[in-house]
Amino acid sequence: MIVEIKVPELGESINEVEIGEWLVQIGDTVQADEEIVAIESDKATVEVPAPAAGVLVKILKEQGATAVIGEVVGHIDTAPDGQKEMRPTTGEGERQDARTDSATNREEAPAKSAARVMPAAARILAQHNVAADTVTPTGPGDRILKEDARRAVTEVASPEKIKEEQQPLSSGPEGELEAAKERRVPMTPIRRTIAARLLEARQAMALLTTFNEVDMSEVKRVRSLFGQQFADKFGVKLGFMSFFIKAAVTALGDFPLVNAAIDGRDIVYHDSCDIGVAIGGGKGLVVPVLRHAERMGFAEIEKKIAEFAKKARNNSLTMEELTGGTFTISNGGVYGSMLSTPIVNPPQSAILGLHAIQDRPVAIGGEVRIRPIMYLAVTYDHRIIDGREAVSFLKSIKERIEAPQKLFLEI
Predict the structure, then answer these.
(1) Which pLDDT band holds residue 371 (cuts at 50, 70, 90)?
(2) Does residue 128 carry a catalytic annotation?
(3) Catalytic site residue 382?
């Protein structure tokens, strides 16, 4: 019996998706509810489970193709040839690949990791004699993708080999220059959406950025004194982000326009602080949302951020987790950024940018002292937020970070 694999409903506003990577291949035996193909919308990547147990016999939509909600993208035969023999496996439980020489290549990879190594990645690793268990996976379900394999090969290659591969031009036998190679890769739906939203913000908003600097001494002292106790009790590290989220939601209560949005001729005020936290994931930057962050304590915030980070790496964030934010915090400091002008995420009206902490000389009480300083930036829509409010909002965050006792006392 042939069972159709269909694109599932992903939300009211999503009508079209792009087919991502097929996690199984034609001829593979699958179990019911086993994840078999990744699909990408403009908001998230999700994995489609097998509707029934059987053998994948047909792929109607290859990776990169577009499909609409409800469209059939493949077929599963639940009773191939009546009693078709199960596909043979290797001694360590690896499934042999039905295609030309993938089986041989898979067997050369380490057995404990081969089940999560995609065929193209397995070939690259085998060709360069790189162990799969040394590769950091970024694919759905911690699978090793072709890009992961290429990155791992590059990391272990000799400096001479890297230099040779990066050389843009070379001389041929007759002295002619060989043209530099290039690759053309379609943008993913998420990347296209990010590009469109950033362009929309630039074109539709009157964006302005204000800056300040904050002394991180007290926050670092609190983390030093109580960080281990916090981790022992709650099972998660006490990071810097929870301090800034707590400071931001308090400041948003003092300056509600920063948490508001423009809708036509109206200003929409939000009674809750739904804070988007920018996180780098397998498919690029994503911004999952902490709902009602004003109700959350330090431990709950840190646990939720850790959960979001894990899901971002596995590309398993849901659309509900990625939509509906009222204010965003982006920490470029984790990548070493010293100063930036973050771009507002429409329809929000402002975004807070955090940066790297650096020891700098500052004047304190007429003396020069060395303090850990971070630059802060708030980009805001000047159509709704005046400069005085933006500056005061940022100053409010600065004061609470420099005296974190205010956060604990909720003042």
Answers:
(1) very high
(2) no
(3) yes
